[in-house]
Amino acid sequence: MLETERLLIRQITLEDKYELFDYRSDSEANKYQGWIPKTIEEVEVFIGNTAKQINEPQTWFQCAIIEKTTQNLIGDLGVHFIGSENKQAEIGCTLHKDFQNKGYATEALKKMINYLFSELNKHRIIASIDPKNINSIRLVERIGFRKEAHFIESLWINGQWVDDLVYALIEKDWESRYSQ
Ligand SMILES: CC(C)(COP(=O)(O)OP(=O)(O)OC[C@H]1O[C@@H](n2cnc3c(N)ncnc32)[C@H](O)[C@@H]1OP(=O)(O)O)[C@@H](O)C(=O)NCCC(=O)NCCS
User: Least enclosed by CB within 10 Å: which of 24, 104, 105, 142?
Assistant: First the structure.
């Protein structure tokens, strides 16, 4: 469990399925996401596929983001442990649209990134983003990710080929940015 000023970040459980379905099934708010569930059963599979423990190579570990004052589940944050040496991770974040634009995603991601670098000794963290997903680009650039690649029509999402931006943050950049 990770805690920030306004949020708790904890592993997702099956008990979260209805709250997760509520905002993840919103196809307009999530139009740049590869996964938009149409049924509760799809959410059960998604939660069931999350790793039992954090930091297992080649798995996704899915967390719920909880607003401390209300105990509302306001979003989720996933970490994908990638690379054969398990020194790299991919992150993704989705907020319920009622809880966007309050700085919550920035607050949650910074905490998780700090944990990944300082506790799990990761070397590099990436994010894969549709170039049209302006809020997501603003989010990672605000935190200090560097744009490393723009792949053209490299992903098949929601019935069409889309471009993919790869953003990355390496540990020494994070250290120099946040240690002053
Ligand atoms: C990507 C996503 C999580 C970003 O959410 P977001 O609300 O834009 O990001 P934050 O929660 O960090 O909020 C930042 C905004 O809140 C504003 N804000 C308002 N009050 C604030 C406060 N008290 N503290 C900090 N920021 C505050 C900031 O100024 C910033 O707005 P700006 O970009 O206009 O400057 C969200 O757009 C989303 O869930 N999208 C759908 C899913 C998706 O596509 N995910 C990407 C997968 S890679």
Answer: 142
